[in-house]
Amino acid sequence: LYRARFMEEQTQGLRNPGEMENGTEPCGEECASEAQETTVTEGAAKIAFPSANEVFYNPVQEFNRDLTCAVITEFARVQLAAKGIQIKVPGEKDVQKVVVDLSEQEEENAELKEGANLAPGDQPRTAAVGEICEEGLRVLEGLAASGLRSIRFAREVPGLQSVVANDASARAVDLIRRNVQLNGVAHLVHPRQADARMLMYQHQKASERFDVIDLDPYGSPAPFLDAAVQAVSEGGLLCVTCTDMAVLAGNSGETCYSKYGAMALKSRACHEMALRIVLHSLDLRANCYQRFVVPLLSVSADFYVRVFVRVFTGQAK
Q: Record's CDD domains (predicted)?
């Protein structure tokens, strides 16, 4: 009873000053929450999101987003080079440029490059940042939240055809639309409100698949992996983040087995084991559809693991 009276006195004492500061009546709290916004600049993107944290923003994963932009840029370089298109990366010098081969098919790429050089075309076609490339990559961010990652793709990665920024929350999609207009990338980024799994299941046809799928859920990506390995194109790039490190590092072996099909053990190599468990889980789901994964880059950083794999079709392999 005393506690209830004390809390009532506190709320009554704080209510009037807040109303007088905002110059509003009881509805002023909602107006204040809507008016208060925070603007964050990360990379080449500028994002506005509510200070009440209605849509999640995690500054710790800036390295994750930086790394993803770099990997997709190199993936676009490899994919578009086979079509005779060169990408223009801002700040990249033409002299002493190092090209990273992600395909593990050096002979085929060498033949394609020679054929491209011998082509009778006048000048090679180029793809710049912020421009629509008709033969470029189709990217899906299944869990976009504020749309920061998709907008960074549009403003930092060349050779894109379209970026679908999807989220199941209506408020998140509204925020994505505002941020897309704020950054002037409406021609590349297309907001979408849908369940990520259903959206990927609707793009199983070879002509409708995405070249790049990025999954960064709050926790385990296990519910989305089955749909993702079907919706990524042949040789496409699948980027997956797992933030449930406690499960992957051996604190709950049964939960790990139910989500990823492997038993995690506590050891000094728990982080490497977590990466291998995620890769194993991806390969298991891909094998159900006569597909397999080729790991490109696997990273354990901070409180999460991040893997980049390419997905191919071939029952024998």
A: AdoMet_MTases
Q: How far apart are CA 16 and CA 277, in angstroms?
A: 55
Instruction: Give the 3-state secondary structure of residue 7.
Output: helix
DSSP code at position 97: P
312 neighbors 234 (Cβ within 8 angstroms): yes
**Token duo for residue 306:** 């991040």
Please report, for the chain, the start and end positions of each structural domain, with discontinuous segments joined by +.
59-88+124-313
The answer to whether 277 touches 224, Cβ cutoff 8 Å, is no
| Separation between Cα atoms, residue 168 and residue 230, nearest integer Å | 20
Write down the pLDDT at residue 243.
93
What's the CA gap between 7 and 158, in Å, rounded?
56
pLDDT value at position 79? 94
Q: Which amino acid is at 277?
A: I
Q: Which helix (H) or strand (E) holds 281?
A: helix 270-287
Q: How confident is the model at residue 40, as a pLDDT? A: 86
List the structure tokens of 255.
């939960």
Distance between CA 83 and CA 109 in Å, rounded?
A: 11
Question: Which CATH number is 59-88+124-313 given?
Answer: 3.40.50.150
Give the model's pLDDT for residue 312.
96
CA dist., res. 305 & res. 270, Å (int): 11
Helices 28-35, 2-22: axis angle to 10 degrees equals 60
Mean pLDDT by 10 residues, the chain (317 residues): 60 46 44 64 87 70 94 95 90 65 58 49 79 94 93 95 95 92 94 96 95 94 96 96 92 92 92 95 95 96 94 90
Burial of 61 (0-12, 13-18, 19+ CB in 10 A): buried
pTM of the full predicted structure?
0.80
